[in-house]
Amino acid sequence: MNKILVTGSAGFIGFHLINKLLDQGHEVVGIDNLNDYYDPQLKHDRLAVLDRHESAKNYKFIQLDLANREGIAGLFKKNNFDTVVNLAAQAGVRYSIENPNAYVDSNLVGFVNILEGCRHSKVKHLVYASSSSVYGMNSKQPFSTEDCVDYPISLYAATKKSNELMAHTYSHLYNIPTTGLRFFTVYGPMGRPDMAYFSFTKKILNDEVIDVFNNGKMKRDFTYIDDIVEGVMRVIDTIPKVQKSKVTTAQAPYKIYNIGNNQPVTLRRFITAIESACGKKAKENLLPMQAGDVPVTYADVDSLIADIGFKPKTSIEDGIDIFMSWYKGYY
Question: Average pLDDT of the chain?
């Protein structure tokens, strides 16, 4: 049994991950600032589910902001964490245009505080969320972790690329094993209401018009939540060894993986899957591409398969059906 810190524990991925960690008998401390970026009630409902887990005695929740330097330092001092999974972040590409400071506070200042905690507490493995957004408008497909990601097109993506650079620095200087996970469009039950599949479902069921950008031609590597959690669980147990780089003499126990479905789906097929699950056709408002959006995300997961023996496999139709069953029950 490991003692694991999960940040963003009231968030979508954090909630599902903690459920799985408790299933497997780990001791888990979860922190979250419970901000109002989206409906906080959903976050409280996720926490309530964790409180009812049959292994809830192994779980403790603390309301704490990553940007609280003293609070995070105190948390690490009081606990001897084996592993840290940093999922807390200000999410959303479009919101980073409206509120850039929220991304600096959470994704940069907050991440440094986590790195410092790991450094001083001799944490055995830091696993942290990056994003497929770091690939920007790269034209080469599928996106590989070997590709250049020096040209982000949103502040959100820039902060995630910064996290990878910061993690490498701490891995190199202090020999902290770090693994970054570039998630590709995660969806599923108890998900984030700011995501397109949530708003599409709500509007289709209510006979409202949905905005369809780029005429539905955009492609996304939609990844079902259970596949994401399985990937994270396996990565936790796969501590990176010192890697020799092709471009530098710097060495560090540092690794980056894509976690995506490896099967990009058009926005049109995505909408069709939601229509089928809803039993209703969508009313559409066709619009051009939005600023900060990318036309395609497509994950190369060869290294994920080679190193941890796992590849996401849930189809968009199966995943949306499960989501719809939850959505109708919840709302």
Answer: 93
